[in-house]
Design brief:
The longest helix has about 30 residues. A 4-stranded mixed beta sheet has the order 2-1-3-4, covered by helices on one side. It is an alpha+beta fold. The two termini are about 35 Å apart. The chain is about 55% helix and about 5% strand. The chain folds into 2 domains: about 110 residues, Glutaredoxin, CATH 3.40.30; about 110 residues, Glutathione S-transferase Yfyf (Class Pi), Chain A, domain 2, CATH 1.20.1050. α1 runs parallel beside α3. It binds glutathione. The site of glutathione has 16 residues, from α3 and α4.
């Protein structure tokens, strides 16, 4: 059994998709990040960075104490190694999978996150930041499009954890007005993955579904929600105030 500490954002959805793909039993422990559920001391013992997702594997391979993993890329790799699926064991295919996985967690994810922040949450008047991050996001999506013109999945001919890392953010980019019209190769890839039964299960399950406030274009946070996400409450917990 795996405890999935989960908030219904693209980073959480990556892990739900992987757990559905490998058929590993799991239970969802939901966090409302606007309400500050991620800021407790108890969750800090699971992820000292106080961000979702994280997992606790109560039945590690070979037995022993529960294993905690945070950071979505590390979790995907852990589950791939545990199940022996969706990450080639060696050679060029493994290198390509880890390259694209890290490209997502270190590049596409953070840049998309900043674009989303300035478009959806920041006060008005952020033109420079909006342009900077939407341009960089568009550049990264162009890199992805060119890659997918040459291969069925991002790391080659097989579906891997790198696709699972990229797909949920690509799905949520629609909220920012980034459709698929300009990206024909990405559209084919997107639909191929959307049709997978595990992806359908992960996106339809009631306790995994994103509530409206996570997916709306223009977010109106109250003072407490703002503080929990971006302000004093969020920072104080790491300082230990
Ligand atoms: N690099 C992390 C990013 C995790 C992250 O930013 N999680 C967001 C939700 S997508 C979160 O927990 N936000 C709440 C907060 O910042 O307090 C990963 O890939 O897991």
């Amino acid at each position: 059994m795996i405890d999935l500490h989960y908030s219904a954002t693209p980073n959480g959805q990556k892990i739900a998709i992987m757990l559905e793909e490998i058929g590993e039993p799991y239970r969802v422990i939901p966090y409302d990040i606007f309400a500050g559920d991620q800021l407790t001391a108890a969750f800090g013992r699971i992820n000292p960075n106080h961000k979702l997702p994280a997992i606790v594997d109560l039945d590690p391979a070979g037995g022993g104490d529960p294993i905690t993993v945070f950071e979505s890329g590390a979790i995907l790799q852990y589950l791939a190694e545990k199940s022996g699926r969706f990450l080639p064991a060696s050679g060029a295919a493994r290198a390509a999978t880890l390259s694209w996985l890290n490209w997502q967690v270190a590049g596409l994810g953070p840049m998309g996150g900043q674009a989303s922040h300035f478009l959806r949450y920041a006060p008005a008047g952020q033109d420079y930041a909006i342009e900077r991050y939407t341009k960089e996001l568009t550049r990264l999506l162009t890199v992805l499009e060119k890659r997918l013109e040459k291969s069925t999945y991002v790391a080659g001919e097989n579906y891997t954890i790198a696709d699972m890392a990229i797909w949920p953010g690509r799905a949520s980019a629609f909220v920012m007005g980034l459709g698929l019209d300009e990206w024909p190769a990405m559209r084919g890839w997107f639909e191929r993955i959307r049709e997978r039964p595990a992806v359908a299960r992960a996106t339809a399950r009631g306790d995994l579904k994103a509530p409206a406030k996570y997916i709306g274009r223009h977010q109106q946070l109250d003072d407490a929600e703002w503080s929990n996400m971006f302000g004093d409450a969020n920072h104080a917990v790491v300082r230990g105030d």
